[in-house]
């Protein structure tokens, strides 16, 4: 396990090569909005909303404005993953008030087309197969236990924010959001999951500085999305508006690329002090970044969730910096 922590530094000191945005796509048809996860499964990009507990969305990308096509599933009873009573009760109460008791915050896909959703409210992972049948993964209790012992998953609404699987679904990674943030991994043996040499890869605290356009504030370092591509993990880091490549064995950051120029364009800003990029999918040609507008209206009047397409960096995602 790697422990990381440092003082906040000025935003200019976090400079990283800027990603080039190729296109922007508002999304119609997600009834409750709040797009919180993206994954490419089969022949299409899929999305999940943190305000709905029993639906996935296939995104029809045939036009500039995308249409979300709902696929509903039956949600099975939620397992007890070892979270504290207080955290579980507060999550349940919040879910009843705003919708989305599960608070699904991440989405991944394996080579067989199974979709994996992580519930922030219950620190659990749901697998939905291509036929639409859903079941909770039997993850080891050590995942939550070791995360909490490392200082993660102790605060309401600061739980698991991202999930990623490799193509064979032999390894599954989870990203804890903030205060403290971190990365965890489990390995599959037939139909069971276990921690090999510990679940926690990386844990860290500290604060990051926001762009000047957001007031030169500092905020707790956050992960808001996680994906696996070509033997590497990629994290979405919304405080500094970056996508970062990380080592799968220890979570070490190897390189980062910025999307701040896109997010901070005057017409695209929201009246909030927080970065709202919540969803990430990386492929050979580029990256998809999804925005959870959280019912806010953008400066240009856009009220729908939005997905950005960025070109891969020069030299590809494996390039050294």
Provide a short characterization of the protein structure:
InterPro entries: Aspartic_peptidase_AS, Phytase-like_dom. The chain is mostly beta strands.
Report on this model:
This is Esterase-like activity of phytase family protein. It is a single chain. With 321 residues, this protein is mainly β. The protein has a single domain, classed as Neuraminidase. Helix content is 8%, strand content 41%. It has helices at 85-98, 142-149, 260-263, and strands at 2-4, 21-28, 35-41, 44-49, 55-60, 66-72, 104-109, 115-119, 124-128, 134-136, 160-165, 171-176, 181-189, 192-194, 200-204, 207-209, 218-220, 225-229, 232-237, 242-246, 253-258, 277-283, 286-291, 306-311. The chain has an eight-stranded mixed beta sheet with strand order 3-4-5-6-2-24-23-22, with no helix packed on it. Strand 4 (44-49) and strand 5 (55-60) form a beta hairpin.
Produce the secondary structure layout:
Layout (H helix, E strand, L loop, with lengths): L1 E3 L16 E8 L6 E7 L2 E6 L5 E6 L5 E7 L12 H14 L5 E6 L5 E5 L4 E5 L5 E3 L5 H8 L10 E6 L5 E6 L4 E9 L2 E3 L5 E5 L2 E3 L8 E3 L4 E5 L2 E6 L4 E5 L6 E6 L1 H4 L13 E7 L2 E6 L14 E6 L10
Parallel strand pairs: 1-15, 2-6
Antiparallel strand pairs: 2-24, 3-4, 4-5, 5-6, 7-8, 8-9, 9-10, 11-12, 12-13, 13-14, 13-15, 16-17, 18-19, 19-20, 20-21, 22-23, 23-24
Stretches where pLDDT is under 50 for at least 5 consecutive residues are: none
Outline: globular
Q: In oligomeric terms, what are we looking at?
A: single chain
Structural class: mainly beta
Please provide the count of β strands: 24
What proportion of the residues is helical, as a percent range?
under 10%
Q: Count of helical segments? A: 3
Average pLDDT confidence is: 91
Q: How many domains?
A: 1
Radius of gyration, whole Å: 18 Å
Largest sheet: 8 strands, mixed
* Order of helical and strand elements: EEEEEEHEEEEHEEEEEEEEEEEHEEE
CATH class: Mainly Beta
Q: Biggest sheet: strands side by side, in what order?
A: 3-4-5-6-2-24-23-22
